[in-house]
Structures are given as C-alpha cells and as structure tokens.
Design goal:
The protein is an alpha/beta fold and 491 residues long. Helix content is 42%, strand content 20%.
C-alpha cells in the first residue's frame, strides 16, 4: 500500500471550549490512511515484541520521564483544549503516570512464561502458560479524560508487547498528538504508537482495518456500534462505557465526609467522569442532615474555579433536559436549576432531591455537575436502588460498619468505601464495569492480560508405561486407564 500524503486529507479544527478559538487543525484519516497506519504499526510490532519485557520497561519508563518533564505543557493544553481546571488536569496526569509506571514495571511478572501443574494423568508433561501480545491494538478514546483514559489502554497494551494505532476524540486531537510526540521523543526508532485523527468515521474505519483487537472507551451507544462493526471479522473488543454511579449513605455514616465526597465525585472534571457520582441514596435518619450540608457546600463551589466548562456543547442540552424532566416529575431543585446551564458552563453544582426513579436524571448518564439526592429507608434499600440501573461501572458506600458487605452487593465493577473514585488511581486494581458499562478490564494484571493471548504449551518429558493417546495402545492400557480414572475420581 502506498503511503498517504497527510496533506491531501481534509482537515478539522480543534477549538478552545471557552473562547471558541481554533487551537490547531488535524487530518481526517479515512479508511485508506487508517489501513496504512495499521500496516505501519504492524511492521513495527515484531521488533517491539522482541525487545521483551525488560527492554520495553526501560523505554516506557523513559516515556514517563519525558511526560513528567513536559508536565506544565500538557496541563496547559488540557486547560485549553479540554477546558479542565488546573487541579483536574494535574490529578489526571498523576493517575496516568502512575499507570504507565506500573504497567512498565509489572508486565514481565504478570505475563512471562510460568510452569503450571500438569496433573496426575499428564505427569510426564511440562506445562507452561504465557501471555503473548495480540500484535496491533486499535485504541479509540473519549475526550473527558484525554490522557488518563487512553493511557489505561495504551500503557498496558504497549507493555504487553503490542503496537497501537490510537484514535483520540475529535475534541482532543492535540492532546492525543502530544502523547504520540512524547512517545516518539522518548522511544525513537519504534513506530509502535501511531496516531490516527478524525471524527467518528475514523474510529469506524479503525474497527475494520484488520487490527487484532479494539479497545474502545466512550458511550454505550457508540460502544454498541463498535461491537457490531467488529463482529463480521470477529475482532475482539474491550468496551469501557458510561456509568450512572451511585453513592449509598448508611445511617451510621460520617455525613460531612460523605457530603464532601459526593460533591467532589459529582463536580470534579465538571461532572464529565464515567465513574462520577450522579446519584446519592441517603438512609432516612441522616437524609435531612446530608441534604442541608450538601446544599450549603454546593453553594460555595464555582464553575471556572472549582471545575471547568462542559467540553462538548451538545452535552449542555442533555444536562438541561435531565434537570427539566426531574422537576417536571416532582423532583425539587435544592441548589441551582435549569438556569444554572449557561454555555459553556453549568455555573455551579445543581442539587436535585426526591427525584422519581424513572426520570432521565436517575436513569441516563447526565455527564455534568448535577447530583440527585434521594431518601431511602436504609443502606440496603440504597444498594437496591443503586443496582436498578442498566449501567454497572463504579459506586461508593459510606458506612462506619458493614461497608464492605454493602460494597459486595453493589452490581458494579468497582466500589469505594468511605471515599469516592479511589479505585481508578490504584494501578494494581482492574478497572471496568458490567451491563451497559461494558466488559473487559484495563489496569492491573487483568488490564495487562486483556491485551494478550494466553498461550498454553506442553512439552513431553518422558514416556509413561501407559499408552493412551496413540494407536499403539492395547486393551490392557485402556483397562489400566479405567482403573486409574476410577481410583483418582473416587477419592
Ligand atoms: P463517544 O462514544 O461519543 O466517542 C468515543 C470515541 O469513539 C471518540 O473517539 C469518537 O470519535 C469515536 N467514535 C464515534 N463514532 C464512532 C464509530 N461509529 N466507530 C468507532 N468510533 C467512533 O464518547 P465521548 O467521546 O463523548 O466520551 C464520553 C463517554 O465515554 C461517556 O459515556 C463516558 O462515560 C465514557 N467513558 C467511559 C470510561 C470508562 O473507562 N468506562 C472512561 C471515560 C469515558 P469522535 O469524538 O471523533 O466522534
């Protein structure tokens, strides 16, 4: 395939969500150029695999150092292209670098060949399992955590020995390009992180460009499209989708701490977090205290200082619709209301109370600084309501006693007890959900294995007196086998 001149492709602009100013322009990769990029990545993948875990570890740690050195630059870009406040950008980078470090240092230990017991019947076999890279992974990322989220796939896929073609969101291509540039600076000569820019069409092209696996992070609706696009070629898919995470407050909880966490979980990153807290179920004995304190603290938070604008203009309509629908169905606006939605901001947190469970603000992903606070009889009922969602990403429980038991009953992939959003920053924990929140895992040992094919190998060590899997066997062999099987399985 001939190389595509990127200059010949149409270009699109990335804009500052606050001022609307153009930041830069990028090519819209089409089917042909995406395929060419996948071919490029594939050519580079064999040498990357041959480096082994120790070799890749050195290079990935060098990438981490380059990113750490250029931290002020990426924080400024995240503020500009993504609208994040500095604190949110720094927190995102802290978690992202932690994951890169962990993946680089642990891939060998988790994925290397190891001997496993071969069992009595196969005692003459030396059995091993190892985790081999797929080859080329297509990573499709969202805009809300434009570094941390793609890096949850990129770092682990690269550490496992794959090459990657990375398609960032059309809202954050400059941040995606920064990731690719820093990689090229730290790891010259290994063309294993290839950037493809464009819109949804470019993402769709990547799904059918003969990659070995797609790691998709985004909405449930687009996730379903990705799954359908990958089905004809049986390309495996990892889906990290949206959420409608709930926080359950038990009657014995530290109410002030729960309020602080609820507001931070709802408003950090302007509420644009897949695992952000969107619903709170408070046990009746502490409900009024929680709501009063929550309202008091919410009134002190400000858009522009404590959290940034809503990055995607269309999302403001969704946020307003959810607030309107909640109020029309009998919910109460305790802080803010529809008037809080003033493009490009939601001016301050919107706290809604007593919102019917069938309203959009309870059922659908709001993706803004909006918190629904509902009363339940006790924490058990809170968990039941939390679980009555199509999504199942994360969640939180505040309780002085029995928190772990409540956490166990949450139908989600992750839960924080007496805190919120703590799990994404623990690198050895798997991240991912169930139900409409998707399947597969990033982060931790499971996240490394997600980008590999388990390979089972047996090596015959010696001949056994019992011949079974050969036509040289005799009737006596089979009689002996029967006696042996009966003996082993009767114990
Ligand atoms: P989208 O689903 O709109 O887009 C995600 C990515 O898919 C973008 O790069 C997008 O490109 C691309 N895309 C769009 N159409 C297609 C297609 N037909 N085939 C392939 N790719 C396509 O999500 P958002 O970017 O709006 O991100 C927000 C969503 O992501 C929320 O639902 C959030 O909860 C979820 N999310 C989940 C996380 C998790 O780990 N579970 C983490 C972070 C976010 P383009 O932008 O150019 O259209």
């Amino acid at each position: 395939m001939t190389a595509i001149d990127a200059g010949a492709l149409p270009r699109f602009a990335t804009l500052d969500p606050v001022t609307g100013e153009e930041i830069d322009t990028f090519p819209v990769d089409d089917e042909r150029s995406v395929r060419e990029k996948v071919d490029r990545a594939r050519r580079a993948s064999a040498a990357w695999d041959r480096l082994g875990h120790a070799g890749r570890r050195q290079l990935l740690l060098a990438w981490r150092r380059v990113m750490a050195r250029r931290l002020p630059e990426i924080i400024a870009l995240m503020e500009r292209e993504n609208g994040k406040v500095k604190a949110d950008a720094l927190i995102e980078m802290t978690a992202a670098l932690t994951h890169l470090d962990w993946a680089a240092r642990h891939s060998g230990k988790v994925l290397r060949r190891r001997r496993v017991p071969s069992g009595l019947l196969m005692a003459n076999q030396y059995a091993t399992v190892e985790y081999r890279p797929f080859g080329v992974i297509g990573v499709i990322g969202p805009w809300n955590y434009p570094v941390h989220t793609p890096l949850g796939s990129l770092a682990y896929a690269l550490a496992a020995g794959n090459a990657v073609v990375f398609k960032p969101s059309e809202y954050t291509p400059a941040i995606g390009a920064w990731l690719a540039d820093t990689f090229a600076e730290a790891v010259p000569g290994h063309d294993v992180l290839v950037l493809a820019t464009g819109d949804g069409g470019t993402g769709a092209a990547l799904c059918t460009a003969c990659v070995d696996k797609i790691a998709f992070t985004g909405s449930a609706r687009t996730g379903a499209r990705v799954l359908a696009a990958c089905a004809p070629s049986l390309t495996p898919v990892l889906l990290e989708l949206g959420g409608k995470d709930a926080l359950v407050v038990a009657a014995d909880a530290d109410v002030d701490a729960a309020v602080e966490s609820a507001l931070w979980g709802a408003c950090s990153n302007a509420g644009q977090s897949c695992a952000g807290i969107e619903r709170v179920y408070v046990a009746a004995p502490v409900y009024e205290r929680f709501l009063g304190r929550c309202a008091e603290r919410a009134r002190e938070l400000r858009a522009g200082t404590d959290f940034g604008p809503v990055t995607m203009p269309g999302q403001l309509d969704v946020i307003r619709r959810h607030i309107d629908d909640a109020l029309a169905r009998g919910g109460r606006a305790v802080v803010g209301g529809p008037e809080s939605v003033r493009p490009p901001y939601v001016l301050g947190p919107v706290v809604l109370a007593d919102v019917p469970e069938d309203s959009a603000a309870v059922r659908e992903e709001t993706f803004g600084p909006v918190l629904v606070v509902n009363r339940v009889a006790d924490a058990e009922e809170g968990v039941e309501r939390a679980n009555a969602s199509a999504y199942g990403l994360g969640g939180a429980v505040f309780a002085r006693r029995g928190g772990l038991r409540l956490a166990e009953r949450m139908r989600t992939g992750m839960v924080s007890v007496n805190d919120v959003l703590s799990f994404p920053a623990v690198p050895s924990l798997p991240f991912g959900g169930r139900g409409a929140s998707g399947f597969g895992r990033i982060h931790g040992p499971d996240g490394l294995r997600e980008f590999t094919v388990p390979k089972a190998v047996t090596r015959k060590l010696f001949d056994v007196p019992l011949t079974v899997s050969s036509y040289a066997r005799g009737a006596k062999d089979m009689q002996r086998l029967q006696r042996l099987v009966t003996f082993i399985n009767s114990r």
